[in-house]
Design goal:
This protein is an alpha+beta fold. It has two domains: 247 residues, D-Maltodextrin-Binding Protein, domain 2, CATH 3.40.190; 224 residues, Dipeptide-binding Protein, Domain 3 (Dipeptide-binding Protein, domain 3). The protein has 17 helices and 21 strands. Helix 16 runs antiparallel to helix 17. It is globular, with a radius of gyration of 25 Å. 45% of the residues are buried.
């Protein structure tokens, strides 16, 4: 009799899985939002547009929660570390993909190895370099079998790291550390993963029901998701709309439930009766110097150019979206210890903030060292054609020309051409913005820890490397942050970059949408806790 009952229950379960795969009926709650470009669902998909969409369909061992802390949700039910934080063990809960197949520890081993051994194309392999031998696998000096991630059994995955990584649970909220089904990858072909809905399998709260490229995506609730009963919204439509004014108009017409916008559209939003809200989106806007070009290689000239910029006036008179003047590189809001942020512990590290007299004195010293006149200088400032970027770059052009009597050319390009020139160092300075991929200062500082064989146009400093690595290896959380703050101060004393402001973002939501999480770490907008009235 027990066997008969068991067979009946099994049949019922299989039927429910079939119904779910076809799209089960739910409460009927739905929302519509928009992103500026077609997203990607490849194994290493990253970027602003991808942050929202990947968070809907993929889940890692840990997940960002509410109020800037980790959520108890995630594929890992629990985890622990060894004494020096070089080994982390994660215990998986009973989780499944949209077709009902189980999520296993091997999925994480497979996906991470595939990004390092050339199986799939990866944009930023260094995001995985905390894992032992990851750098060696990329460079061919270590085999993938030596990679520091292994499955003990179906429910236990162990990571070994190159050095103490006290922030590892925060680090692995980034999608490059997520797992993916080896069986599905082999079935659809590694190169096809994520190109179409049929080439992708979800283990997140939603699955891709429809995707019309460069037009829209429809995500439906994944009833095989382990926490499906606590996901309130059944369907999310994501429109692909590059133009911000179009997105704002659709929101004002009631066709979108959430919209981000810049300061120029503030009056239209508030006049329509909506509350304009802001959130710290964990980004720093800054200028990067080409350290091989002409006068830019002179440290005093770079320091002078930084000191000439009135950041208070820049954010109040030009940016006008709640952004705040930068007094360092690591933005406000990123974690320090359990109770304080990095900036609260470290304090300001930008010595070359606004001081016009100091700027002019440094500039004259730099000119004398180079044996040139101000009239000899023509700087090229590269920027993208995004409204804020072009406007702020024009303001900096005016400041530098009026303060020093030099010529500044602003090279404004559409995004693809801008990225090409930036990659090839075809500039004197480039307008940049970096946002937090994980909640730790290393996400901002690690890119400046270079070896002696670095590109001469980039930054190299033994003093920076020493302070940065001291912080990386320090397991005392507060002392570690102080070491990283010292590294940041060295970077800014060298003026390899010129921080401008910590960015904020205006947004508004429809009256029926509640519980949307906006944060300083990817995903910047999160509907995991959202509901509609």
């Amino acid at each position: 009799m027990k066997r008969i009952i068991s067979l009946i229950l099994t049949a019922a379960l299989l039927l429910s899985v079939f119904v779910v795969s076809a799209g089960a009926e739910g409460s009927g709650k739905s929302i519509t939002v928009a992103i500026p470009s077609d997203p990607s669902f490849t194994v290493d998909a990253i970027g602003d547009s991808n942050g929202l969409t990947i968070n809907l369909v993929r889940e890692g061992l840990t997940r960002q929660g509410q109020g800037g802390v980790l959520s108890p949700n995630g594929v890992a039910e629990s985890y622990e570390h060894n004494e020096d934080y070089t080994q982390w063990t994660f215990h998986l809960r009973d989780a499944a993909y949209q077709d009902g197949t189980p999520v296993t520890a091997d999925d994480f081993v497979f996906a991470i190895a595939a990004q390092l051994d050339g199986t799939v194309e990866v944009s930023y392999p260094d995001f995985l370099y905390e894992i032992k031998n990851a750098r060696g696998v990329v460079r061919g000096t270590a085999s993938v079998e030596e990679l520091g991630v292994r499955a003990i059994n179906d429910k236990t995955v162990v990571f070994e790291t190159e050095y103490p990584v006290t922030y590892f649970p925060q680090l692995i909220t980034h999608p490059m550390h997520f797992g993916y089904s080896r069986a599905n990858a082999e079935q659809v072909g590694y190169a096809n993963i994520g190109l179409e809905p049929e080439y992708f399998i979800s283990n997140g709260p939603y699955y891709i029901d429809e995707w019309v490229h460069d037009d829209k995506l429809v995500f439906k609730k994944n009833a095989n998701y382990w926490n499906a009963e606590n996901i309130a919204i059944d369907e999310i439509t994501v429109l692909i709309i590059p133009d911000e004014s179009t997105r704002v108009n659709l929101f004002l017409n009631g066709e979108l439930d959430l919209v981000d916008f810049d300061a120029s559209r503030l009056s239209a939003i508030t006049a329509a009766g909506f509350e304009a809200q802001t959130f710290n989106n964990g980004r720093t806007t800054y200028l990067s110097a080409n350290l091989e070009h002409d006068v830019v290689k002179n440290q005093k000239i770079r320091q002078a150019l930084s000191s000439a910029i009135d950041r208070e006036l820049l954010v109040a008179g030009v940016v006008k979206n709640g952004s705040t003047p930068a007094d360092g590189f690591v933005p406000v809001g990123l974690a320090g210890d359990d109770t304080r942020s990095f900036r609260e512990i470290v304090g300001p590290t930008l010595s070359y903030s606004y001081d016009e007299a100091k700027a002019k004195a440094l500039f004259e010293e730099g000119l004398a060292e180079e044996g040139i006149q101000a009239s000899d200088i023509n700087l090229v400032l590269l920027t993208s054609n995004a409204t804020e970027n072009a406007t702020v770059s024009a303001a900096i052009q005016q400041i530098w020309e009026e303060t020093f009597g030099i010529t500044v050319t602003v090279d404004v390009l559409e995004s693809a051409s801008y990225r090409t020139k930036r990659t090839n160092y075809e500039y004197d300075f480039v307008f940049n913005s970096w946002g937090a991929d994980w909640n730790d200062a290393t996400n901002f500082l690690s890119g400046y820890e270079q070896t002696e064989d670095h590109n001469p146009a980039a930054y190299y400093s033994e003093a920076f490397n020493e302070a940065y690595l001291r912080g990386v290896y320090n397991t005392d959380v507060v002392a570690r942050v102080s070491d990283l703050g010292e590294a940041e101060a060295i970077l800014l004393e060298d003026a390899a970059i010129i921080p401008l402001y910590y960015t904020s973002q205006y947004y508004a939501t429809s009256s029926r949408l509640t519980g949307t999480e906006r944060r300083a770490v990817i995903p910047y907008e999160d509907f995991y806790f959202a509901d509609v009235k």
